[in-house]
Model the fold of this input.
Amino acid sequence: MGPLSAIDLMSPVSAGLLGALAAVAGVLFLLIRWGFGPPAANARHWGLLAIRATIILVLAALLANPVRVDHLPGSVRRPHVFYLVDASRSMALGDKPSRFEQTAATIRQAGRLLPREQRPALDVYRFGRRLAAVESTEADELLSTVTPADRDTQLLAALRQLTGRFAQTPPHAVVLFSDGRVRDPAGVEEMAQRYARMKVPIHVLPLGDAASSGDVAVLNMVAPATVRKYSQIDVWGWLRSYGYDGTRTEVHLSAVDYQGNVVQRLAQQPITLGSGIQPFHLTFRTDLQATRLQVSVPPQPDELSKVNNRATADVTVDRTKIRVLYIEGTMDSFVVRDEQGRGEIRSADYFLSEALSQDPDIECTARRTLQPAVSRSATVLPATRAALLAYDVILLSNVHRMSFRDEELEWIEEWIDQRGGGLCMVGGPQSFAAGGWPESVVGPVLPVVCSPAGNDFSAAARVNVRPIQSSALHPIWTIVSDAKQNLAILESLPAFRGTQRVLRAKPGASVIGVIDSADAQQDAQPAVVVGPYGKGRAMAMTTGIARSFAPEFVERWGEGDNRYYAKFWRNVIYWLSENSVNGRRRLIASTDKISYRPGETIMLQAAAYDEGANRTTNCRVDVLIEPQSISTELESDDSPVRWPEGIQERSSGEQGPYVVWGEEFEMARRPDREDYAVELQLVDASSPVAATQALRIELSAYEDFALIDSTSIDVQILDDPFEDRNPLPDLELLSRVASNSGGTVLSDANSLADVLGDLKREIGPPTVRKVPLWDRWWLIGTLVVLLTVEWIWRRSVGLA
Done:
């Protein structure tokens, strides 16, 4: 309503006094007229009289003092309302929209339903683990500035702390947006009664579908960021479920594009759901392309949210060449003719070298060894230990143990055990027991138990090798992707001329190929055996592979060529080299586990190597801790790792008990073990520093100030916070909070707008504003002009 205005005369003299003054002025005029007679003739001009009369009227108007009186309504003070928004992780549940998105939509719609003059003054706060003010009250900005990621719902503490934000006058109401899944519900109800005594009602808008049975969520997955081509990759993951105990389902591992569409199903694992955290382990073989992996669990029909049933990780294929050292002891030579019939003499290593060289990611170095009697003075291995460690796979074909010095054999054993190298030994008159290998330091590396007889190779009979499978076909035998066609190819595997007679496979090794026996009562003789050794891998193939021992296998296993032979050996190299990536590294790090609980200790170890590939502690190894994902929203600058004991100096200048994100510290040297180590104590679940689900530990090795190598390790922290134990909403608690505080239970934006619109607005006393109307410049200016004209006129006619 606008102001009400009126005109009032507020003369400084009363009307009686004004009348008396007028009477006195009249009497004086008559007396002057009587005493001095009539005015002169030149003073009786009507224009001059009119000017004088106008002056008298202006003076009378000024003396009357007209004033405009404006009556203004009292000021309106908008009601004050606090919005309290739940920002815990359970608010992210729900599909299109989530509970949190429903909150923002309700706030947005209620604001549009209210006329501007009825909108209250808003203060917005978010709560979860802690209470914090939200600067903007716009719903769209609420979504962009607040993420529902808190791992706890401390509503009681939030309501207690909110009273300290009331200032001098409590708000008219508090509107709570939550799913009601909070700590200490009894304390929350008691706090609601205190709000009632303060006459501050708490209106609640419940979020969540109480009709749902539960929820299944994939927490995270750990996969190596960089992998070798055609290698078997382990993927570890964890899921949490509630409400589906005993339900059978599957975990799927898929390759997806960057829009989330499934490109290829890689693996799957059946699983029985149970409340709490469950680990799972999947494996797959990489292809040539960088791959985005997705772990997913099919959603249940009545599940709370389907968007948390998957997690993704990116895997990039390392195209660093696999270096193979192929040592051939067979001294055969033969002539290879081209299409024009021209012949060229080739040695026994020709076909295998050519087969490996067809792959651009394999680099094969072929060497021929002399007989043991003359080979002690000239080695076929690289001259130094460091040069040997630059290889990924060593393939020994018909090579005697005496072809190497004892020191070189120790190099080979350490290279496989400690650095993940791969060794393949194939049959021949100088291999296995016939070559003296069981008594050497390399003997334990072989996955077979050799015959005690020295001469264990027989070239008299033709032998047929039959690939076998236990639960699945070994990747070495995967010649083509089509399973039916691949089986036909394996059945066409040509015969070999002779084989080594080994006793059996060692414990932990796998027999993936046997020699068919004519005697059905006799156990099949192992022909191809694979197994782990330390960090590396080993393979034994008892048949000879040189052309003189396997001409059909070498030259004609294929489609008019030897393409299947070539693919078989490339498979062997890729399998043997899967763990050899550390062989070339100068810094290798490991932890005792890949997943930890809050409060546990991460045992971090590292080994550094000098240019000669010898272990050294003369380097400085620095550790840096950062979130595994750059998109992780951090609640604190502190990581969930306590500052390690025994490390006093902090170059960052920090003083707190925790390692700050991105802060570096040096690992302790252990010269007696030739390595580095540090214990990283994780915070417990009750710590004020929130435990993130995944960490990345970055390690860097320096010689003086030069960086020589760096590596990283992903670590999973498996917490079971209160927030995640029961994702179903507690609508009854929210109803009791509203009832105990004198508030109401809201259903949608319309009911929220009705409550806000009904809040009483306070109107202050009206204001009276008086504006003098004579106080105008033009009025004063007119009076001055009239006086000036009157004076000039009088002077012009000769009057005083």
Remarks:
- The mean pLDDT is 85.
- The chain has 17 helices and 44 strands.
